[in-house]
DNA sequence: CAGACATATAACGGAGAAGGCATATTGGGT
DNA sequence: ACCCAATATGCCTTCTCCGTTATATGTCTG
């Protein structure tokens, strides 16, 4: 079953995979080099990322080229949206009052 | 020890706590009602959230009032930043070409 | 078509986290 | 000072997930 986006992102190795895919599409082998994890481990993470929609994959010769997809990251961005007022909104009087209350 | 922001957010109950704190500060008891989880469980999640900086807490009479803090969510927002070009940037010719390649 | 390369899956062991119950702690009211 | 309310912590069990080794699938190449 497909895992939810936050659980997927909780894994450091998976975030590093996403980072690596930000610059360019990569084959599994390319990802294995530079990640310092075994190939099966990488394949498993790629499966999780694929099933959650973070990446897609095309076949080129003997290799599988993975590619970053925007969908789930956009969703996280959207989830974050109602929280943005915490740091974007101007502090009004009430807000300042609450700030002064906390220790 | 303090857990990293993504791991903290991976827990659905913790996200619901953050949601509840978005509108107003809440005591532990208020959070327990409406979450449908035992009080010790909520206290444990609050501890995780506190140690990771997502919330702060002040003492009022016998209660502890928890409050949402912007820091870690901002950090997640920042992490997301280099990925935003995936969906904000205009598709150029190369991008369209790659799109047509994937199946 | 046989062998080699690239990737995926299986099986297993171990570590961490979540929830529940029981209990400790802290602060308040009388 | 006692008792009670509000919250925190300990302990235990269960379950999920990561990583490794071994093996299967698949696909070029000679």
UniProtKB/TrEMBL annotation, chains A, B:
Keywords: DNA-binding, Transcription, Transcription regulation. The keyword Transcription applies. GO terms for molecular function: DNA binding; DNA-binding transcription factor activity. Residues 1-103 form the HTH arsR-type domain. The keyword Transcription regulation applies. SMART domains: HTH_ARSR. PANTHER family: TRANSCRIPTIONAL REGULATOR, ARSR FAMILY, TRANSCRIPTIONAL REPRESSOR SDPR. This is Transcriptional regulator, ArsR family. It comes from Micromonospora lupini str. Lupac 08.
